[in-house]
Amino acid sequence: MEVSKDQYKSALAAEGVLRGDNLKLLSFMFFSEECEVTAHQLTKALGFGDQIAPANAAVGNLGKRIASHLSLDVPERENKSPGWWRVVATGEQKADGFTWRLRQNLADALIELDLIIEPTSEVYPELVTEYGPSYEGAVSIVKINAYERNQCARTLCIQHYGTTCQVCGLSFEEKYGEIGRDFIHVHHLTELASVGREYQVNAKQDLRPVCPNCHAMLHRRKPAYSIEELRELMQAQADA
Question: Rounded to two decimals, what is the model's pTM?
């Protein structure tokens, strides 16, 4: 099924569609690796103990309310029973169990409506245990890793700055055509080793899109060069 970003935005903004812990549910899916979660992981994140039925119901009921607002046809499962969860995510059986993957257009709608709840050890204890490495202040390091590795979270930075390198101005799409579309690295402005336990990462303030070459040059010094410093070095070389 296809639901556009604008349709999701309309539904999420409508009264009564988002209820209870729905934003916590969606945000947990958003920040999970590749936006994928199992029913067991989501159950723990939402505090449902060991019973997966409430998590399944939460995803399904949210999908049903979105579908109702948008007057969508009932998505059916193979056994012909309603599959309301398909409005929220795709899904497949994997080694760790049935796995949901948050739909990209829904993730984009959450970003544009500024509805994402950023992870903390209190809100998403699952993320603390699933990501490494284990530096001092591991909760914050985990959170940064989620931003840098997760395709959906990466969108937070790119949504704001685009895919042009913030140092040299290279656009891979302009340089290489279609194969370069959406390609860019994301650089964290704060050295991971210097991050304290109370640090709260903000994608727009703390992350920047940079090309691989500039990304490597930024880290040629410890602490890393700032984007402004590297621009000045490039300009000085051009003027030499």
Answer: 0.58
